[in-house]
Amino acid sequence: MKEEIYKKIIKNSKIPYLKINCKKDDNNKFIAIEVIDQSKEAERFFNLLTENNILNKEITDILINNWINKNFKNYEFNNFVEKVIKTGYERLKYITKSTQKHIIIDVYYLNDYFLLIYNIDDKGHEKDILKSYSWSKDLNGIYLDMTGTNTEKIKITKSIIGKKDEDIWDEDGIKQFRQHESQVIKDRDVKTFFEVLTNKNGKKLYLESTIWPRIDENDNITGLSGYSVEINDKLIFEKNMEQNEENFKEITKYSDSVFIIRDKYRATYVSPSYKQVFEAKEEELYKDINKLEVYFKRVSSNDKYINYNYDYNYPDEGTGKVRLDNGKEKWIWYKYLPIRDQMGNVTKRIGILTDITEKKKIEEEKIQFKLDFFANLSHELRTPINLISSTIQLIKLKLNKLSPEDSRNFDKYIKIMEINSFRLVRLINNLLDSTKIDAGFASFTPVSADIINFVEGVCDSFTEYAKFNKVNLIFDTNEEEEIVLFDPDIIERILLNLLSNAVKFNKAGGNIYVNVDIKKEKIIISVEDEGMGIAEDKIDYIFKRFEQVQNNKKIERQGSGIGLYLVKSLIDLHGGTIEVKSKVDKGSKFTVSIPKKEAKDSEQTIIYDDNRYKRGKVEFSDI
Questions:
Q1: Which of 237, 499, 549, 610 is least crowded, fewest Cβ atoms below 10 Å from its Cβ?
Q2: Which residues contact residue 290 at a Cβ distance below 8 angstroms, ignoring those fewer than 6 apart?
Q3: Strands 472-477 and 511-518: what pairing?
Q4: What is the pLDDT of residues 6-28, one digit of tens each?
Q5: Under the phi-then-psi rule, with left for phi > 0, alpha for psi from -120 to 50, and beta for the rest, what region is 136?
Q6: Which is nearest to 297 in space by CA: 323, 266, 330, 335?
Q7: Is the pLDDT of residue 247 over 90?
Q8: What is the rounded average pLDDT of the residues 269-294?
């Protein structure tokens, strides 16, 4: 029965308690304690006493044992423990030196361990601790003992011992109390009840009382014991909650969004708009709140966006698509917030769900409009550039008819025109591709191929530009061949952009190191230079669109600020990540990591690309 008292009463109560063992020395004398368990209310209690954060049992051990050393001398503590073991219960009282609070400790012995239940006596005028009372009666209802932390308020003194409830409380409350006591005796079990008692002066006391039978060695019930906690503040809170909830319901009746109040298992209120949004009766949520998850889980694309394993005690927010029972699909934005009582415990959750299908449709139309605009702009810009490029080629063909001196002069200016036309093509391509990615229209087309051979091929096509710019390219890998799934266009675009930057911001005669490292679950490609580097506080900005990191050194070949933004977007599309390590005047290292995936029953693709040199001329046009 004593173990049941702990399990059913103390474990989940608002009572500040410690579950402890007592330690012995070599002389078999009790000298210290070891905390086995403690309630959250005990942590709050000790915080009030010590004005420190009591976060774990080890700290509580230290506090209590220090207190024992200061208040018990020689074997006084051993004698006290042995007395508790013999009688089953003892009470301690003391005053804290630092805060001058009057502390009461009820010590219970429950065969294998001890329970320490703490309270602050009302002499300390502590309003923040729960007011509690412990009592015992015989089978005739006569009080054998009663102690409490609020004795002044309800006039409980030692004179109550020997009296009955009729001498203290109003008749209506006594009837209910007697019924509860009879039920405990009948079931021989521990039970918790809500009690309303009125004293002779007409003042009401709201109690949460836990009652259990007192059983002797022969298994006979000799009376009752109880532990009652005042919940006046809780009652006021709940009444306010009820009033606020009614006001809330009245307001939400006219909202297009769905409002839900729920506990852990079911909905306690669902606003009328649920019928319009989910096209079903709200009664289904009163029966099973998990019906909402079913709507979201029907759409497989939601898996990475919806948090199904949310914590009930914390807010939760997200957007996802639902499929209704009638087959319709809608976009829903939702947010859940916990409702806490005056003790900080979560009692309910309130949810707001809004149908954003039309908003999503408008956003998609805007994105499509934006995409069409850039596509048209790209077409309008590419047409004159193509004409310029064609004209340049025609002029080149005619150069051999000019004198050597004129030919050299024309060739010089034609190269300037050609390079700048390539730069325009590069800018247009970057703008269009970044817009496609933002709009969700970018394609990801992986093939099964040797990624090491592919990366090495891209580096080979870059060698001419590296030598022209007086830098050395060094390629290395930990494997000679690795057949995996990857998108060649994406990887090439990433590499060309990183190599272009490595040349542009490198020092004369510097090195560029390209390394491919094959791991168990990922492929790591790094591009490292020995150039000017990036200041640490600027690294977070380099992947933003149109951002350029300013440097004290003059750079003649500044880009548009869109290249690294596109690189980051392409890596995200490939399901990978990119990291940067850089030191000013030492160089930068960009490390790309993509998932290592192998295609089952897929033929290897041998990649031959005759247009890579032409694309290289475009990508490297500004170096």
A1: 610
A2: none
A3: parallel
A4: 555 555 556 678 888 999 999 99
A5: beta
A6: 323
A7: no
A8: 89
Cα of first residue to Cα of last residue in the chain, in angstroms, is: 85
Q: How far apart are CA 166 and CA 575, in angstroms?
A: 75
In which band, very low, low, confident or very high, does the pLDDT at 103 lie, cut at 50, 70 and 90?
A: confident
Is residue 227 within 8 A of residue 134, CB to CB? The reply is yes
CA 460 to chain centre: 46
Q: Provide φ and ψ at 450, rounded to 5°.
A: -80, 105
For residue 252, what are its two tokens?
């939400």
pLDDT average, residue stretch 68-93:
87
pTM over 0.85: no
pLDDT for res 77: 92
Dist. CA 462–CA 617, nearest whole Å: 9
Closest of 100, 98, 80 to residue 90, by C-alpha: 80
DSSP string, 78-137: HHHHHHHHHHSEEEEEEE-TTT--EEEEEEEE-SS-EEEEEEE-GGG--SSSPPEEEEEE
126 pLDDT higher than 50? no
SS3 sequence of 336-367: EEEEECCCCCEEEEEEEEEECHHHHHHHHHHH
**What is the per-residue pLDDT for 152?**
41
Q: For residues 305 and 439, what is the distance between their CA atoms, to the nearest angstrom? A: 18
Q: Which residue has the tokens 């500040």?
A: 16
In degrees, rounded to 5, the angle at the alpha carbon of residue 26 between the alpha carbons of residues 57 and 31 is 40
Within 151-302, strands assigned E span 191-198, 204-215, 221-230, 258-262, 267-270
What is the token pair recorded at 239? 């009444």
pLDDT at residue number 267:
86
* Contacts of 97 by beta carbon, 8 Å cutoff, 6+ apart: none
Q: State whether residue 188 is helix, strand or coil.
A: coil
Among 116, 143, 108, 107, CA closest to 1 = 108
CB 227 within 8 A of CB 133: yes
> What are the Cα distances from residue 384, in Å, to 214, 370, 374, 376?
99, 22, 16, 13
Predicted confidence (pLDDT) at residue 31 exceeds the cutoff of 50: yes
Q: Which residue has the higher pLDDT, 530 or 179?
A: 530
Provide CB contacts within 8 A for 209, sequence distance 6+. 180, 192, 193, 194, 195, 226, 227, 228, 229
In the numeric block, which tokens belong to residue 273?
Answer: 């708009």
